[in-house]
Amino acid sequence: MKIQNIFVVGSGLMGSGIAQVFAQAGMTVILSDENREALQKAQENIAWSVGKLVEKGRLKEPQDTILERIQPSGDLKKAENADLVVEAVFENIDLKQDIFRRLDEICKPDTYLASNTSSIPITELGAVTRRPERVLGLHFFSPVPMMRAVEVVRGVSTSEETMLMGAAVVRELGKEPIRVESDLPGFLLNRINLVSYVEAIKLLERGVATAEDIDKGVRLAFGRPMGPFETGDVVGLDVSCNALKSIYQESREDRYYPPQLLRRKVRAGQLGKKSGQGWYRYDENGQRL
């Protein structure tokens, strides 16, 4: 089965980025969200991002050609002809399970259902459908158009055929699949990355170093393009906090419990770039002050 028609649920930072990379790969995309304002903002962000990539010579096709492949919609029923659905909504298991139940009723029997979740077990999403063997995780990293790794995650019932399809689709996007053979909380890369993020926050809490120096040290010593706080602001403090909570709730490993400073910043609405303030402050164009 050739994967050509894509349906993306959720038009936030991750959903819009996922829709963009599928369109750039020549696939037809419906980007769905019940919030019209969110959809409008997503379209604007995608247009800006594609425009920049075309400007820099990283895309061969004109901007309009790519954008024409993305159709916004507020109706989940438009998923009826999709070959692959990628869910990218808020990290809440009840919400995600409800969406998967509805998609299972709407979609063709041979449609694959994927989640971009960073921490919720794929098994629990597949369990509410009649096609658990065709349910998998496709965990992209932010910013989606730039990051090349995608975790292809197996649930308990996910078939090998589905895993191979997921890996093949990721390669079609120009990215590299990282197979995760067990959907333990946090999967693979987040379990590694979030531990260092938690430690960085704890060092900041104790006054051992500033966020700026921790970020600078990580960049210069480990060759990373961004430090943990810079990355945290791009991803969103709320996203990281929810991912940590999800891992902790299932694993009960203390190393994944969100630090107090992170929890307080989320409560204060300091969510990173998207809110204008996180670990750093940003202007209305997202430029660091």
Q: Report the CATH architecture of the largest domain.
A: 3-Layer(aba) Sandwich
Q: What is the CATH superfamily label of the largest domain?
A: NAD(P)-binding Rossmann-like Domain
- The run of helices and strands is EHEHHEEHEHEEHEHHHHH
CATH topology label of the largest domain? Rossmann fold
Computed structural class: alpha/beta
Question: Mean pLDDT, rounded to whole units?
Answer: 95
Question: Which stretches are poorly predicted, pLDDT < 50 over at least 5 residues?
Answer: none
The residue fraction in helices comes out at 40-55%
Q: Total domains, how many?
A: 2
**Count the strands?**
8
Radius of gyration, CA atoms, in whole angstroms: 19 Å
End-to-end separation: 49 Å
Shape: globular
Strands of the largest sheet, in order across it?
3-2-1-4-5-6-7-8
The first-level CATH class of the largest domain is given as Alpha Beta
- Largest sheet features: 8 strands, mixed
Number of helices: 11
Task: Give a concise summary.
The chain contains 11 helices and 8 strands. The chain has 289 residues and is of the alpha/beta class. Strands 3-2-1-4-5-6-7-8 form an 8-stranded mixed beta sheet, with helices on both faces.
SSE blueprint and pairings:
Elements: E1 5-9, H1 13-24, E2 28-32, H2 36-55, H3 63-67, E3 70-73, E4 84-87, H4 93-106, E5 112-115, H5 122-126, E6 135-140, E7 149-154, H6 160-172, E8 176-180, H7 189-205, H8 211-222, H9 228-235, H10 237-251, H11 260-267
Parallel strand pairs: 1-2, 1-4, 2-3, 4-5, 5-6, 7-8
Antiparallel strand pairs: 6-7
